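note to self — DONT lose this again. spent like an hour looking for the file last time. sequence + predicted structure for the chain T wanted, 463 res
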Amino acid sequence: MIRLFRISIPVSVIGLLMTETLLAYGCYILAFRALSDDLLDMYLLYEGGLERIGVAVGSILLGIYFNDLYSELRVYSRLRLVQQFCLVIGMAFLAQALLSYVSRDLIISRWQMILGSGLALVLLPAWRLLWDRLVIRVMNRQRVLFVGSSGVVRAVAETLVEKPQFAMVSVGYLNKQELDEPVEGMGGWLGPVDSLREVYNRLKPDLIAVGFSERRGQVPSAELLELKLAGARVQDAASLYEMVMWRVPVETLRSSEFLLLGDLGPSRRSLALQKMLSYLIAVTGAAITLPLMLLVWMAVRLSSPGPALYRQKRVGLQGKVFEVFKFRSMYIDAEARTGAVWARKDDPRVTRLGYWLRKLRLDELPQFFNVLRGDMAIVGPRPERPEFVKVLSEQIPFYGQRHAILPGITGWAQINHKYGDSIEDTITKLEFDLYYLKHMSLSLDMYIIFHTLKVMLLSRGSQ
C-alpha cells in the first residue's frame, strides 16, 4: 500500500499504471520504427519524439482513468473491456486533432498515430486480461482473521471482495456464535473469541482485524496483547475500514475516540493554503465562465417565469447560516406546498432546462461568488439547509463536526458517493466528510478538484 494524496492506493494499481505507460510508449515507438528509416535515438532525443509520444500516451492514460479502469481492475467482460479501450483510443485521436490547432509540434505523424493506436488497442486490453489472471487473482494476498462481527467488519469484508487490488482475503472470523446470514468475504465461522490463540497458531494469519459491536467484556485484550508482543499484526477494524473505503466509520466512533483520531482537524497552514487556493480558483473560474453564466442567466429567464438567480439558506462554518447562490433549476414556489424536501430522481419540481443545468453542474457556477465572499471554499463538505441540519444533527452522531471547516462547491463525499436522498446516504457522506476533515491537505484538495472534472464531464451524482 502506498500513501498518495493522503489516501491509500494499492501497489497493484501503481504497478498497472507504470506498465501500461511503458506499453503505450512502446506501441508508438514500434510504429515509428516500422514507418520510418530515421534513427530512433535522433527522433526521441533531438526531434521531440519523447514529448510527442508522451502527449499521446498521456491522453490514453487519461481516457483509461475516465473509464474507471484504475478503480475497477477486475475484468468481468472481455467485450466491455474492448469497448472501453475503443473509447480510450477514440479520446486519444480527438486529443491529437484538437492539439493540431494549437501546435503541430505537440502531435505525432498521422500514420504513426494510426499504427501505434492500433497496437495499443490490441496490447492494452490483452495486458489487462493477463494482469487480471496473473496478478490480481494469484498475487500474494494478506490473510486476515476477523475477530468480531460488527457492521464495520462486514463492510470491510465485502469491500475486499469488490476490490481485489487491496490483496487481502479473509481466513474466517471469530465470534460468540455463527452469523445467521453469511457475509460475502468474511469466510467461515472459526469458533468463539476465546479460541483466538489456538486459531492463530493453527492458521498463522498475516493480520488480525478486531471489530465488535459492543466492546465491553468481549475484546480479548490479554490474548491480543500477547500475540502482538509475539510479532502478530493486530489492527482495529475501523482503521482497516478507513484504509480500504476512504471513510471514517461513524458506527463505532465514540466521543473519546473522535478526540484522539490522529491528526484530527486541519492545521493553520492547511487552512491558509486552502483559502488562498480557493480564492485564486474562484477568481479565475468566475472570469472564465462569466460569458457562460450570462448565457445560462438568459436561458433560465426565457425558459420559465421567475428570477434566474436563486438564493437559498445553507449552514456554513461553525453553524453560521449564509445564502448560497445558484441558477434556478426549479419552478418558482416549487416548495410552497411541500416545504423543504430532499431532491430526488426525476424530481417533478425541476424544469426541463433545470434538469440539464443540474446534469452539467452549471447551476452551481454562481457559487464562485460565495467563495469570493468567504462563505465557502472550493473543496469542503457540501452545505446543507438549516431545516435538514436540525433533524440530521439529532439523528446522526457527529453530524455537526462537518461544520468545523468551510463548506465547499465540491468535496470528498461528492466525488465518491451519489447524491444523498436518505438518512443512509447522509451517514455515508458524513463518513467521507469526516475522512476529509481528518486528512485535509493541499494534495487531497488537488486530487478532489481533478476528480471533480471527471464527475462533471460524465454527469455523475446529479439530481
